C-alpha cells in the first residue's frame, strides 16, 4: 500500500506538470477531439518501457553526456513542433461538431494521421531527459527497494505511477475535446497558440539544459 500511494502521488505530479507531451495532448485534442488526445495521453505506456528497463538495470551507470545529448536533440525537435503549431494557429478554424481534422489542411485525424501523431509523441517523450532523470534518480531506487521486499510492491508502485500519469492526461484530453466546439475561432486559435508556446518554452529549456549541462 505504501508503494502504491507513492506511485499515485508521483504520477499525479508528473501527469499535470507542463511539458512537451502535455502540449501535444492539448493540440491533438483541439484538432481531432478526445480520441486524438487519448492516443497522445497513452504515449508514456509505449515510450517509457526502455527507459524503465535501462534505468532499473543500470541505475546511475548512464553517462551524463547521454542525458545532455537527449536534451539537445529533444529540445530542437520540440521547438520545431512548436513552430509548426504556432504557424497553424494563425489560420486554424475549430472543426465542426462530428468532424475531426489533424491540421489546417483539413486532413482526417483517423488512420495514418493518428498513427503519425502517436509516433511523434513517442519520439518527443523518448528524447526528453525528464523521464530518464526521474527513473534514474527517483523511480529506479524506489522500484529496486520495493522489489527486495516483494515484487508485488514494486509492481504496485509502477502501476500506480502510470495509472495517474496517463489518467490525468486522458482527463485533460476529454475536457479539451469536449469543449473545443464552444471556443469560437478566436478562442480556438488562442488555445492552439498557447499549446505551441508551452512546447516552445519546454524545448528551449531542454536546449539550455543540454548545452549548459
What keyword list fits this structure?
213 residues; mainly alpha; 9 helices; 0% strand
Describe the structure.
- There is one protein chain.
- This protein has helices at residues 2-16, 20-32, 34-41, 43-57, 64-89, 112-127, 129-149, 151-179, 184-212.
- The longest helix has 29 residues, at 151-179.
- Helix 3 (34-41) runs antiparallel to helix 8, helix 4 packs across helix 7 and helix 7 (129-149) packs antiparallel against helix 8.
- It has nine helices and no strands.
- By secondary structure, the protein is mostly helical.
- The protein is globular, with a radius of gyration of 18 Å.
What does the secondary structure layout of this molecule look like, with pairings?
Layout: H1 2-16, H2 20-32, H3 34-41, H4 43-57, H5 64-89, H6 112-127, H7 129-149, H8 151-179, H9 184-212
Helix pairs in contact: 1-8, 2-3, 2-6, 2-8, 2-9, 3-8, 4-6, 4-7, 5-6, 5-9, 7-8
Mean pLDDT: 79
Q: What's the SSE pattern?
A: HHHHHHHHH
Quick one: how many beta strands?
A: 0
Q: Helix share of residues?
A: over 70%
Radius of gyration: 18 Å
DSSP strand (E) fraction? under 5%
Low-confidence stretches: 97-112
Largest sheet: none
Amino acid at each position: 500500500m505504501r508503494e502504491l500511494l507513492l506511485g499515485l502521488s508521483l504520477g499525479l505530479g508528473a501527469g499535470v506538470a507542463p511539458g512537451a507531451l502535455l502540449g501535444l495532448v492539448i493540440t491533438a485534442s483541439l484538432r481531432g477531439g478526445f480520441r486524438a488526445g487519448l492516443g497522445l495521453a497513452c504515449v508514456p505506456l509505449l515510450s517509457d518501457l526502455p527507459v524503465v528497463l535501462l534505468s532499473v538495470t543500470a541505475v546511475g551507470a548512464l553517462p551524463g553526456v547521454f542525458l545532455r545529448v537527449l536534451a539537445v536533440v529533444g529540445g530542437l525537435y520540440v521547438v520545431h513542433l512548436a513552430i509548426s503549431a504556432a504557424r497553424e494557429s494563425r489560420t486554424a478554424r475549430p472543426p465542426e461538431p462530428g468532424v475531426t481534422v489533424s491540421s489546417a489542411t483539413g486532413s482526417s485525424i483517423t488512420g495514418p494521421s493518428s498513427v503519425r501523431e502517436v509516433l511523434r509523441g513517442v519520439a518527443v517523450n523518448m528524447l526528453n531527459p525528464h523521464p530518464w532523470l526521474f527513473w534514474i534518480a527517483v523511480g529506479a531506487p524506489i522500484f529496486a527497494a520495493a522489489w527486495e521486499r516483494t515484487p508485488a510492491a514494486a509492481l504496485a508502485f509502477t502501476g500506480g505511477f502510470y495509472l495517474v500519469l496517463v489518467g490525468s492526461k486522458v482527463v485533460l484530453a476529454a475536457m479539451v475535446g469536449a469543449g473545443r466546439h464552444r471556443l469560437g475561432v478566436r478562442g480556438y486559435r488562442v488555445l492552439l497558440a498557447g499549446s505551441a508556446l508551452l512546447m516552445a518554452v519546454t524545448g528551449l529549456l531542454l536546449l539550455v539544459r543540454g548545452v549548459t549541462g
